[in-house]
Protein 1
Amino acid sequence: MNYIRILKNKVFRQLFTSIILTNLANSISSISLIWIAYNKFNSPVVIAIVLGALQLPNIILGPFLGGLLDKFNKIKLMTFANIVNASVFLFLIFNPLASRIDISVFILLLVLSGSMKPLLVGGDSMVIQDIFESNGERMIANALVIMSFDTTYIFGSLLSGLILALGYGVKVYALVAILYIFIAVIFFRINIIFTPKHISYDKNKDVSYVNNTKSAFKTIFKNK
């Protein structure tokens, strides 16, 4: 089967594992962050702030941060993004959010974590492009990634709901932090063994980051 052939690729297996674990960690983290906002502060406003801190940076900064994937080592950027995600939950493990300063630091970490999403989502697709030469192989690899998304999110929701219902909030934070750190280790290993087969840009052509971003927006708004 074509799926089995794709999974025989060592680099893709590691990337696919990291994607599954990332989806799982994201699912658990989303629920646990809402849980702490509700139980700690019992305020819809705080819940809105937490969700906004996670989503707005992704929406606002996504077009700009995503462009970094073209300029720098994608795997290293994705490793860094997972370390940032882990820092949110490492902070929660050791901090009870008892003061305004603590809460401010927590929100700042959430904003940083939210801004990492374009690097992870865009990076996954770009690495798949680098791993496989043919469009057919890329389509199968992306299909596996898409299928894993819903499965892991459902499982993550069930798992986090069960744990939080038992009142083990800190253990959930530790679990998510460990997952993100483990994912960062996987990316670190990929960076050591993987040399991209494809170069999607001309090294001899100096295209500035600003012009590249303008070109992307022009394509988005003018290309039907």
Note: The two ends are 36 Å apart (CA to CA).
Protein 2
Amino acid sequence: MSPGQATVFPWIAAAIAAYSAIALAWFATGLLRYPSIEVSTDGVDVTGFRLKQTVEWDDIADIVPLADGKNPEIGIVLRDRARADVEIFYRGPFAPGYMQAQRSVRITADLFAVGAAPLLDFLDYYAFSPEDRVELADGRALRRLAAMGQPTLDG
């Protein structure tokens, strides 16, 4: 190893170790949460890194595909005067503003293993098929979600 590398590499290793320790501590204390979507007969709970938004099915006006650069997103558009319930996990200078987070909900869809298109179809189906929401309570919805991600014979 050259003398220049010998002086730089320990500092880089220390910086990576410090970053990892801080991220682990942040996750362990509950300040960092991996994004998740919980769907029930009552509505949709979208948990992000810093906040949780809860939307009732009746408050959804539309579910649309979006994109942030090359990352697919799903937008849940709320009806007029409808607001998502917001629980903010992170308090600090970069915490999301309450008013910014409640008029619509954005889901970063590429974080989920099922894929963006099946997740969009799944949410869209249950948002506009209230008679089938009972499937969300007994596990049939998981089979429907798995079927939505499968290719069909016609293309």
Note: The two ends are 56 Å apart (CA to CA).
Protein 3
Amino acid sequence: MKKQTTAALYRTKLNQLETQLTLENQAYFADLRGYMSFGGLFLDEGELNMQLYQMATDLLEAQRDGVTAAAFFGKQPQRLADQLLANTKKASGPALFGLAAVVVGILWGINLVTAFSQNGVLRVSVPQYLLDGVIGVVGVSLLFLILQRSFYSAKKSQLSFVRRVIPAIAVFLLVIAGQLATGLLLIDDGVIRIPYPWDLLLLGVIVISLLTWLLLKGAALYPFVFLVLGVALLGLIHRLQVAEVLQGTVWSVSQGVILVVTLGAAFVSYRWGKRKD
């Protein structure tokens, strides 16, 4: 059985078990699960979920005997979670690479969408893209660390909530600022120019790769298929306009129509998926 399949299987079972816990035990276990999940960014997801599932199973058995989660797991859940995380197997190299690839792919996709919407020959700055990838991976790692530490910080006053939210927002803004800075400072460094029709070939490769990945990940990500197709059509029309293959105001108007239809299809797909669940 593949690791990701194992992780998804135990995640589903874990969600079902949690609904059988009392409200008090649910609150305790939700913090424990959240702390371990965010702290397990670089750990084997399948083993981590399996461990959480076993803990929920044991807690449910104890609950039937009238034992609370605090009595069963102890008054120091953070220390317990840290010990369990320390003994959990680390994620494999390919899994870590895949995680980084998702983050980097999203950031590069944003950059490419911006590039495709510009006039003239398509320009890709290699140093900018590489640095954007590093900033994105570091930013996500910091964000997970902040979110993990928020579970057992002094809570639950309004002041403590602000102290937990502000660092997360600060990291998010720093990542955006880093993306903007690299775009301004490195836009003319290490530039690869991709003329027509090679720009359309690149667009096709990106779209096919994204669609394949989304379809393989399952129905939960199907709404993004419409977004990818919509962005691809917009990019295609714009690059053909730049190459003067398409002319006239009708194509400018059609871009707005495509955007509206794409967003509408994505929303309907999302709602339909939620209804089936």
Note: The CA atoms of residues 150 and 165 lie 9 Å apart.
